[in-house]
Design a protein that fits this description.
single chain, alpha+beta, 7-stranded mixed sheet, 5-stranded mixed sheet, 5 helices, flat
């Protein structure tokens, strides 16, 4: 009979799974905080995400005494978003690799790199989406271009205070950062600067094409995701996840071929509710 609190291989595997999901969840939350994302929508089984856009015409408010006030006609129309995809990855480490390299290098290090690759894919999808923005701006330098993007956002959102976020290639601001007294922070594999030249938050990543700036209002950003600890997945599969459910992992040993297998699932999309509220600015000068 095993002793109480005996550390077994299953407990060690569980600990590695917990460390994986907590690291991922912390990184995602740090990104969401930097972007100011407050709307996080978990997909429910059998549902489709819809947003609604209101449009209409305001009638003339100059109505003569005793006259009937004309009705202003407004209506809402549904906008369907593309169905979110649950992505799946798996890796297996052979017993021979574990013997040769040691467990930490053969399994743990490769699992950490797998996590980084999942994050890279999410970032890449997000920037590909931003590139479809319909707002346009340009400026001779990055400072001029970002200022023009800021101006476009003030017009597009027409509110008293637009909290803006900008996405740039690091090479476009390298010279400026080399001489400016600015504090860089990191989140989800991206560097960012808060209150950059008084215009808003700037995120730096090489996924943004050089000479291009993406800009939008923070309130326009939404996170849509498949909760790996919900959506009925838990009824069929045993994934370890944290309270957020952003990512799930399951580690097991396969004795039929002597491999240590890791299966990771994630379904997550960052998008802008209003695509016409995403400005793509061009740095046109040298």
């Amino acid at each position: 009979m095993a002793e109480t609190n005996l550390i077994t291989a299953d407990k060690l595997a569980r600990a590695r799974e917990v460390e994986f999901v907590e690291s991922f969840g912390y990184s995602v939350q740090k990104l969401l905080d930097a972007l100011g994302v407050t709307r996080k929508i978990a997909k429910q089984a059998g549902t489709v995400l819809k947003t609604y856009k209101a449009k209409g015409t305001l009638e003339d408010g100059n109505v003569a005494e005793g006259e009937t006030i004309p009705l202003s006609l407004y209506e809402t129309e549904a906008v369907d978003w593309a169905e979110i995809t649950l992505k799946k990855w798996r890796k297996a480490t052979s017993a021979e690799a574990i013997i040769e390299k040691g467990f930490d290098q053969a399994v743990s290090m490769t699992t950490d790199e797998m996590l980084r690759d999942v994050q890279r894919g999410i970032r890449s999808d997000f920037f590909n989406f931003l590139a479809t923005g319909t707002g346009k701006a340009s400026g001779a330098t990055f400072q001029a271009a970002i200022a023009q993007a800021w101006g476009q956002l003030q017009v597009l959102f027409d509110t008293d205070n637009v909290d803006s976020v900008y996405f740039l290639n690091p090479m476009d601001v390298a010279d400026y950062l080399g001489t400016a007294n600015i504090s860089l922070q990191t989140a989800f594999g991206m560097s960012y600067i808060e209150n950059f030249i008084g215009l808003g938050t700037v995120m730096l990543n090489s996924n943004v094409p050089q000479g291009t700036i993406y800009a939008t209002a923070k309130d326009n950003l939404v996170l849509y995701y498949v909760p790996t600890n919900g959506a009925d997945l838990g009824n069929a599969f045993n994934f370890t996840s944290d309270v957020t459910g952003y990512v799930g992992i399951h580690e097991e040993s396969d004795y039929t071929n002597l491999t240590a297998s890791d299966t990771v699932v994630n379904g997550m999309a960052l998008f802008a509710e209003m695509i016409d509220g995403v400005v793509v600015a061009t740095i046109s000068g040298e």
